[in-house]
From TrEMBL:
<keyword id="KW-0433">Leucine-rich repeat</keyword>
<dbReference type="GO" id="GO:0016020">
    <property type="term" value="C:membrane"/>
</dbReference>
<dbReference type="Pfam" id="PF07714">
    <property type="entry name" value="PK_Tyr_Ser-Thr"/>
</dbReference>
<dbReference type="InterPro" id="IPR000719">
    <property type="entry name" value="Prot_kinase_dom"/>
</dbReference>
<dbReference type="InterPro" id="IPR011009">
    <property type="entry name" value="Kinase-like_dom_sf"/>
</dbReference>
<keyword id="KW-0677">Repeat</keyword>
<dbReference type="Pfam" id="PF13855">
    <property type="entry name" value="LRR_8"/>
</dbReference>
<keyword id="KW-0675">Receptor</keyword>
<dbReference type="GO" id="GO:0004672">
    <property type="term" value="F:protein kinase activity"/>
</dbReference>
<dbReference type="InterPro" id="IPR032675">
    <property type="entry name" value="LRR_dom_sf"/>
</dbReference>
<keyword id="KW-0325">Glycoprotein</keyword>
<dbReference type="InterPro" id="IPR001245">
    <property type="entry name" value="Ser-Thr/Tyr_kinase_cat_dom"/>
</dbReference>
<keyword id="KW-0732">Signal</keyword>
<dbReference type="Pfam" id="PF00560">
    <property type="entry name" value="LRR_1"/>
</dbReference>
<feature type="signal peptide">
    <location>
        <begin position="1"/>
        <end position="23"/>
    </location>
</feature>
<keyword id="KW-0472">Membrane</keyword>
<dbReference type="InterPro" id="IPR001611">
    <property type="entry name" value="Leu-rich_rpt"/>
</dbReference>
Length: 771
């Protein structure tokens, strides 16, 4: 602690005056000034003066224009002009612009939006930017086809070029970009059908091609999590989707075949489905309402038929439902009426409802319309023959006129409404790290961030951290390990935080780590809030790095499972939803950030619970920690530092650790040795093959076993065993785990016996406490 106190004497003021460890290479600074000139000295770059030291902070940085460096080279360039920028003058040359950009050879992240750039993208020049990972060139005037040169960008993960005038067909060579995860070309002029090769892109997670002029059927899209194809001319067949899909927007197309109820019923991760404004006919699968993750469902403006039943059930996450302008009969499910905070629209159907504000057609209307589009209602199916045929034809003529009018009116009425689809973009605030966050691979995860309510990531001053910890008083010290100390503190606005102090080696460089740490924010992680560097006054090297995290203070998961210290143990249903939360955290660590974090040494005691009982993964494999270890010659990490992200089967190591956590969740007994794991595995194995449920329920924590459905128990046990497979390649993927847990939650829910209320405290169980 002694040298600590000494180093902390440095004030922030002196820090910001220190020269950067390395100034930007002069040739790169020149390139940046040249770019400014080619852009016609836009106001957004008014702070770039000829003495700007681009790599070392300073006042030239604004939220709309900034540069990040790694050592003496630019790795990120962000220039965001004002919305509505006019095209640059005819003297502008896109070739010259990209030639100049290619003099920044280490560029990884590039944002050039609302700058009036015009012309065809020059493929040859772009292909020289070999390190590009994330590109956003939205809201310019780029035209022509996507150039083949793009396919040579082997590291490209995100390409966003919304609101341009790019045309032609979506090229088949996109499949040659092995890492491409996010492709967004909203509001361009793409035409024709989509290439079949889209199904061969294993990394692709998010495909946004809304508001183009695409037609034909979609290829199989089984890897995708986010699909937005709104406002094209696609159809008639609904695409094949995978089980991992989270958001599907197909509004305003020409889909007309029915919805594949069986396929959609297995989409347990589906949060948003919007098929409004198409030509769908056939029965509306009411089971969509009860999908466990579903939040937003719109089928408005189609010809869905079917009799709704008042007792149909709804998923608990559902908050927006639009059934308007279809041919539905029966009564509105009670679960849609009851809840406040839910938006439910259902006008212009033939439902019987007590709500006059959403007017309905008389029921013969729906019947006739259904006949007109060739759907014979159940009861009428047997009456075939010439007579029915004549009736149908007569009705058809009349109904077509009516339906054309209805569709027209409905469309007009719907247009001005703000569609909640905007939400995806809104949460990406303009603060520095959020720009990166908005690009994160799994856009749907970022959606959740907004609801998190955690403050934006930022850099802290040492003074702030001193104030927060009472000058790093011993009383604030929470613990200490080979990496450094951990303190508890409270920011001036009252936010409680955990501060990790890391002593660092002179030769280390942090920029790329900070970039990644700033992305470690998720509902199910103890999230990063910021960092602070401490410099040595003599040679201006970094001596300490402080990482600021959320402080989660409601105990760990073991305390709610095997040690019922608070006298409250989680019910079976709560255990499953907690496990789902942990799995979602793991999914984010693996796939929600780039590069993913693997081999996180997950333990039940590191799963922290917040005041709302939301589980958060409390420690994970931050690369900077493993490097600090190396430089200190410390032991502890099982894997070679620096390559830690590439541990073979690193993801499967986490699945094993998750399996051990599940074992404890199931059995309610603390599991702390490999021996215990092996014992439990054998017991699970034989319980799973046993005939009746009794052998299984004997293995489950007696505090909850009475209220478990056998299907639910069996599903959790099976996935637990698979996670614990000896051979890493035999272990399931995190998506597979999530799917099964969601399933287990669903069957438990369906069969929930009256004995278990989700909030009822169960008896405290005396258990030996050891870790
Ligand atoms: C910086 O710019 C000013 C005017 O904008 C000019 O007079 C001066 O020579 C420039 N300095 C260098 C080092 O280029
Ligand atoms: C579509 O892009 C054009 C520019 O190409 C822009 O002017 C227009 O506002 C965009 N439309 C929407 C709905 O965003
Ligand atoms: C859309 O594509 C079709 C052909 O597929 C063409 O006839 C139509 O003019 C296009 N519309 C626009 C607005 O480009
Ligand atoms: C709903 O109630 C009807 C009788 O009114 C019954 O036939 C049907 O099985 C019930 N459905 C569900 C899901 O409970
Ligand atoms: C791309 O840039 C625009 C304008 O700065 C921004 O609104 C949008 O969120 C960015 N898109 C992504 C996916 O980062």
């Amino acid at each position: 602690m002694g040298d600590h106190a000494l180093l902390i004497l440095l004030s922030v003021a002196s820090l910001s005056l220190l020269p950067g460890a390395m100034p930007l290479q002069p040739s790169q600074a020149w390139s940046l000034f040249k770019l400014r000139q080619l852009l016609g000295d836009p106001p957004v770059l008014g702070t770039w003066r000829n003495y700007t030291d681009f790599c070392y902070g300073g006042d030239y940085k604004t939220a709309s224009a900034f540069v990040e460096c790694y050592e003496d080279s630019v790795t990120q360039l962000h220039i965001m002009g004002e919305p509505g920028a006019r095209p640059l003058p005819t003297t502008f040359s896109i070739d010259a612009f990209f030639t100049t950009l290619s003099r920044l050879p280490d560029l990884k992240v590039l944002t050039l939006t609302n700058l009036g750039l015009w012309g065809p993208l020059p493929g040859g020049k772009i292909s020289r930017l070999q390190k590009l990972e994330i590109v956003n060139v939205s809201s310019n005037y780029l035209y022509g086809e996507l150039p083949r040169g793009l396919s040579q960008l082997g590291s490209l993960q995100t390409l966003v070029a919304d609101h341009n005038m790019l045309g032609g067909k979506l090229p088949g060579w996109l499949k040659d970009m092995p890492l491409l995860a996010v492709l967004s070309l909203r509001n361009n002029t793409l035409q024709g059908t989509l290439p079949e090769s889209l199904k061969d892109m294993p990394s692709l997670r998010s495909l946004v091609l809304a508001s183009n002029n695409l037609s034909g059927n979609l290829p199989e899209l089984s890897n995708l999590q986010v699909i937005d194809m709104a406002n094209n001319a696609l159809g008639p067949k609904f695409p094949r989707l995978g089980r991992k899909v989270a958001s599907v927007v197909l509004a305003g197309n020409k889909f007309s075949d029915g919805l594949p109820a069986d396929m959609l019923a297995s989409c347990y991760l589906l949060e948003r489905l919007d098929v409004s404004g198409n030509r769908f006919v056939g029965p509306f699968p009411a089971a969509l309402l009860s999908l466990p993750s579903m939040e937003y469902l719109s089928i408005a403006g189609n010809r869905f038929t079917g009799r709704l039943s008042g007792n149909a059930s709804c998923g608990e996450n559902l908050r927006f439902v639009d059934l308007s302008s279809n041919l539905l009969t029966g009564s509105l499910p009670g679960c849609l009426l009851a809840a406040p905070g839910k938006t439910v629209l259902f006008s212009a159907n033939c439902l019987s409802t007590g709500d006059d504000s959403q007017s309905q057609h008389p029921s013969p209307f729906c019947r006739n319309q259904a006949l007109a589009v060739g759907i014979v209602p159940e009861q009428g199916r047997k009456k075939s023959g010439a007579k029915a045929g004549v009736v149908a034809v007569i009705v058809l003529v009349g109904a077509l006129v009516v339906s054309a009018a209805v569709v027209f009116v409905v469309r007009k009425a719907r247009l001005p409404k703000a569609r909640p689809a905007r939400r995806l973009v809104e949460h990406a605030s303009s603060a520095y790290p959020s720009n990166l966050l908005a690009d994160a691979r799994y856009i749907s995860q970022t959606v959740k961030l907004g609801a998190l309510g955690i403050p934006a990531y930022r850099s802290f001053s040492l003074v702030e951290l001193e104030a927060a910890t009472d000058n790093f008083q011993v009383s604030s010290l929470m613990g200490q390990d080979a990496h450094g100390q951990m303190y508890r503190g409270r920011l001036s606005n009252g936010t409680p935080v955990t501060i990790r102090s890391l002593k660092v080696n002179k030769s280390q460089s942090f920029t790329r780590h900070i970039e990644m740490i700033s992305k470690l924010r998720h509902r199910h992680l103890v999230s990063a809030l910021g960092h602070c560097f401490q410099y040595n006054l003599d040679d201006s090297t970094v001596t300490h790095l402080y990482l600021v995290f959320e402080y989660v203070h409601n105990g760990n998961l073991r305390g709610r499972i095997s040690q019922g210290t608070e006298g409250r143990k989680l019910s079976w249903g709560q255990r499953i939803s907690t496990a789902i939360g942990v799995a979602k955290g793991i999914q984010f660590l693996h796939g929600g950030i780039i590069p993913g974090l693997f081999a996180n040494n997950l333990k039940i005691t590191n799963i922290l619970m917040d005041q709302n009982q939301v589980p958060k993964i409390g420690s994970y494999n931050i690369p900077i920690l493993s490097e600090t270890m190396k430089s200190e010659g410390g032991a502890g990490s099982k894997y070679p530092p620096d390559r830690i992200c590439r541990v073979p089967n690193g993801d499967k190591i986490d699945m094993y650790d998750f399996g051990v956590i599940l074992l404890e969740v199931i059995s309610g007994r603390p599991i702390s040795s490999l021996y215990e794991v092996e014992m439990m595995k054998e017991q699970l194995q034989s319980a799973l093959t046993a005939q009746g449920p009794s052998k299984r329920s004997n293995l489950v924590d007696p505090a909850v076993s009475k209220a478990c459905s056998d299907d639910s128990m069996r599903t959790v046990m099976e996935i637990c065993l698979r996670c614990l497979a000896k051979e890493p390649t035999q272990r399931p993927s995190v998506e597979d785990v999530l799917w099964n847990l969601q399933f287990a939650a669903q069957v438990q829910d369906d069969s929930r016996s009256s004995e278990e209320s989700p909030l009822s405290p169960s008896q405290p169980h005396a258990q030996s406490a050891h870790d």
